[in-house]
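Progress report, Aim 2. The chain analyzed during this reporting quarter is listed below.
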Amino acid sequence: MNLGFIRDLPGWWPIGLGAIILVLNLAASAHILVHKRDVRAAIGWVGVVWLVPVVGSLLYAMLGLNRIRRRASELQRARRRLPLSTPRDTAIARVGTDANVPEPFTPLARLGEAMSGRPLLTGNSVQVLHNGDEAYPEMLAAIDAARHTVSLSTYIFGYDAAGKDFVEALARAAKRGVQVRVLIDGVGVRYTWPPVHLALRKAGVPVALFLPGIRDAGLGFFNLRTHRKSLVVDGRIAFAGGINIQARNVHAAKPPRSVRDLHFRLEGPIVGQIQEVFAEDWAFTTREILDGPEWYPTLLPRGATTARCFTDGPDGDLEILRTVLLGALATARESVRIVTPYFLPDQGLISALTVAALRGVRVDIVLPSKVNIPMVQWAATAQLWQVLRPGCRVHYTPSPFDHTKLLVVDRTWSLFGSSNWDPRSLRLNFELDVECYDAQLAEHLDEEIHRRIAEGTEITLADVDGRPQWRKILHGAARLWAPYL
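Predicted structure tokens for the chain:
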């Protein structure tokens, strides 16, 4: 290679280049110091910027800037400015934070309203559905019975045996004049090939992809995913929880790498809040406003559960769920039971778990024995000593992979939905969860968790400390990537 042109450059060019790099590094560092609230993240990015000149600044520009929050906030403000004619909550449904809430949980109820801006709603019914075997037939039957509207949001919508049943049911609904809207995450839709949205469009079903990928959204938005799973039929019946639409959830078919999960059928005023979340996401993606009595009918009491919907995401809803989790752990007096597939809590949540255990609260954390993403499991294992040492109990459940997300406190308060205990859920993804004040429901879910504990294996501090040295190194290295997993 002929590098003679370098000799022809002016003698001041190294100084000029150095000055440009210095200004670039200073500008990037200043932005980091002002905008990165997490000290560790700030130190890490400053190190990258100065240790890898130019490249470090470019990496920060692509991955470190919170374009996610900025764009999400712009779209959120735009959609909330649009006039909606339908009132969201009926007067009979809305309750004060002191009503229908046991006394020890009143502060938690107030925290939930302060964080979410949504009221607690009485008069709801909640039915627990196990795996796709119970959830899918109920969901398909509801779609087939729809008369006016169907709204479906999901992260994964597989074009497999289970997915095709939903495509056919949605197509039938659209053909008989039902207003159908389907929102699928732009990454989750590609878990199977060909992607299911092509079949939906061919069948005449209105479908949209949430930030479809790098080509359309840019690398800076790649992590901005909707992880929400909801189905609302005629504005009166809702399904929410952790189940995606894929054949792996139907255990009767004996699929390879099956997935265990829970979903929930809800009726009552809470359905209006779930519908509102879908409508905002649909407006976010398509700019179409869903409004009117077909989408928001008057909702009368259908049960005894007091409930509220939580949304969490990298926009105006940032860290709502994390704050609610901290509040729930502080409220606990007797027991905390957690089921999650991915357990990578930040230091604040670890401290809250630690304090609860040291106060004498029994804290049970139920995790799958084999996680579908090995690096996440390695990173989680590296952190377990932090909750085991103060007295939290960790249990591994056997296969199939348990994708369930549950939190039950004192057999009185429960939380279910799409959120995991990891940075991706609590900071990057758009999530949907429901809190319930209902001792009967909480006891039922507590028994569900107890069955998982009974069939599982308890992991002790000695087990974690007894890992071979090479595993400790591997797991420790994976833990460094915990904020990105």
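The radius of gyration is 24 Å. The longest strand covers residues 120-130. These observations will guide the mutagenesis work planned for the next reporting period.
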